[in-house]
Amino acid sequence: MATDLAITAVTCVKNEGPFLLEWIAFHQCIGVTDFLFYSNDCDDGTDTLLDALAELGHVTHLPNPAEGRNYQMEALKDAKGQAVVQDADWVWIADVDEFPNIHVGDHSFPALIDACGDPQTISLNFQFFANNDIEAFQDQPVIEQFTHSHNPDMWCGEAAVEVKSLVRQDFPLQYFGAHRPFFKPKVKKKQRPSWTDGSGRDVPHRFLVAANPRRIRRFPASGSRVHATLNHYALRSLDSYLVKNDRGDVNRENRAFDDTYWRERNDPAWEDTSIQRYLPALKKQMEKLKAQGNIGALHEACVAAHTAKRDALLEQPEYRAMQKQLRKASKLPPQEEEMLRGLGLLGEDA
Description:
Distance between the termini: 52 Å
Low-confidence stretches: 249-257
Number of helices: 13
Helix content: 25-40%
Radius of gyration: 20 Å
Largest sheet: 10 strands, mixed
Structural class: alpha/beta
Mean pLDDT: 93
Order of helices and strands: EHEHEHHEEHEHEEEEEHEEHHEHHHH
Number of strands: 14
């Protein structure tokens, strides 16, 4: 198993300061060697913390080059030409609420690559982790706090679940997508890239060639998680969700998330604590990062800004109403609730 691989993680952030060190430390623990961060419009200290990490050599931090609202795709277009990406053996594109949970070998990216047979791309299906009825933001690892998800093989009545992808340098790249790469249109059939799921199986053909617009970012998750899954903590605490709602996301500026987004990701039917195998190494690496320069103080400043933003939002009636609505929201995804109601399996008050 190759352990000397150069693996670059690429991500876009806006006001993610309290969560940066965990994500960086976790990825260092699984074999990521370099990081390329793009940030935009931060007012919680995210950019200041990233600049300090960059000065210490841990990350490369650039302003998001987008001139419009398509922040992520413009950043990924720029990333393709950056040395930290061009010099990598592998490129991992993900968000800071996404954590690869690798089940094989030493639980690292190199172990996953080896288990999958060293293909040119590995795509890992999401597993959305619920809020766990945690209301208050806590400055402790996300992977420790949130332990329940939907059935990994089924999400909101869909067998196909979205993915994120680890891409080898020799992939015949046309462009990076946020969920998967796209290869050049004139690649001959026999020269199409080798591409597996998280079990080392070939991905479905229609996903490979992006033949179905509704499936270009996803494929059936059943049987795809033998070697790894992708834990996605899209909600975190209720406090943090309110702050997330205020900032919008990296794709569409100031997009408001309604309770449909929350309910689709707040299904706690399945307990999965397997990622906590990383906690000892993760906490050690986080403390190591905090001890360098003023990283610890800058992290604390981000935490303070996050809680201050929460307090400011809850001064607004609309955010108090949102908080109340989410507290009461059903833990059944809307699609499943509609199905069960149609089958007469839910009472009128459910």
